[in-house]
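Z., the sequence and structure:
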Amino acid sequence: MAAEKWMVQTKRADFNSIANKYGISPVTARIMRNRDVVGDQDIEQYLFGSLKDLYDPGLLKDMDLAVEILTEKIQEGKPIRIIGDYDIDGVCSTYILYTALKQIGAKVDYEIPDRIKDGYGINENIIKAAWAEGIDTLLTCDNGIAAVEEISSAKTLGMTVVVTDHHEVLKIEEKEILPPADAVVDPKQEGCAYPNPEICGAVVAWKLVKALYKRHSVPEKRWEELLPFAAIATVGDVMRLQKENRIIVKQGLKAIGRTGNYGIRKLAEKNNLDIEHLSAYHIGFVIGPCLNAGGRLQTAKLALSLLLAKTEEEADQLARELKELNDERKDLTLQGTKEACQQAEELYSQDKVLVVFLPDCHESLAGIIAGRLREIYQKPALVLTRAEEGLKGSGRSIEEYHMFQGLVEVRDLLTKFGGHPMAAGFSLKEENLEEFRRRLNENARLTEEDFVKKIWIDVPMPLEYISESLVKELEQLEPFGQGNEKPQFAQKDLRIRSFRVMGKNKNVVRISLVTDRGLPMDGLWFGDGEDLARRLEGRQFMDAVYYPGINEYNGNRSLQIVIKNYKLK
């Protein structure tokens, strides 16, 4: 298990004057400063941002051109095919574009690559099939920016191609290599004036729809109905919840509560979620994984069919199927993680970079398992499985290790690879596995200090400061997630009066605590309850990193804390 180091954020500002100006507590002002929300405009947008604060789609390079091309094709009745991707962002992007193009009378269908058979993004087979079926225009979403050769061949066949994507642009010797499409809409390309390049593929698609709807005089309300899918994709694709992205998710979560989409309503119902009170956590850890499960274990077209379902019965059937697939995925992940941890501890405990081989694991789960290993050991982790041609792997990294660069250094061993600092995908021949492991570890310039997990504390705050109004005020800072993390507070020397393990899986511990000033408060801890109970035996004091909350039971309300990390004394 990884060691921990508790660190207190020390960013400075005049917290009291910010608090007075905006009618918030200095604690909230400090948390916003810790999230780099600085200056009146950013603070106002953070606290009160609405859809009016979103950037104009016209700022995206080639947006006007894409609208012109698609409008012309629609008017001429030319068949358009959307090429999506098999993850949550790709499915939501495809749904947004397909629904919108149908709305304005386009002759449109879609294709989503198969994870195992096709791999990521548009490929030769998809292009040839579209051409053979008389498709005139290909419209990509959440892919296409790197498909230079594939799009060249579509152009050779005489097809029109519009690319919408949000991934990094290929560069060779600092020169940008764009696909030869008729229009390329991607906020990461050079010369794009869009202020927020960190949007997901579905938001790029949603922006295109806004521009198309404006051109075709479709009421803005219709565009707003697609907001939930831009929000789900933003959370599911782990975009930073800052500025525009945070507004999209915050407003999108409210809009999901009102959505008429049968698929989303049924998926929430099957997972016992209240659709009117969904959080980013529910999207990231419940709804999102169900939408992703189709693309992982069967076909992403299942998730798209769910979103497009025309009746409650059809949606109910598909939601049940996706929930069952996700439950199966969870079991397989648990099994794979157990096996991976065993290997990491028995064979590779001294390694700086964990390279684990799970021959029988489903290849779509390698990335999830690599992420779990990284969390447990605070080390870069790469998980490989057997695929049709050799081994396929997926990696997840820590801040101190640039994973893509690590793969570049051993590229002579790889048949294919791609990625960024924190995650990567790759393929290699099985006979190169041992050398791959050895060289990655030899090249890794990591120290023991890099394997210590940093726990960031926003405010060291005595429990006496917690009130119902503060808990309510902290809710204004939601949605929480990447880039807008849930605030963390801390207090030392809490006396432990008693504790009990609860829950049918024994995964909750309620601890009765008292501060040094004599204030009693309960603390809840979620995890292996029996393990914590053994550790608590005979201990009198605890330092805790916590988040405040309210416990409602039988009509009574009391303040409590949820303990995230602890040190026993």
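The first strand starts at residue 4 and ends at 8. The chain has 20 helices and 20 strands.

Let me know what you think.
H.
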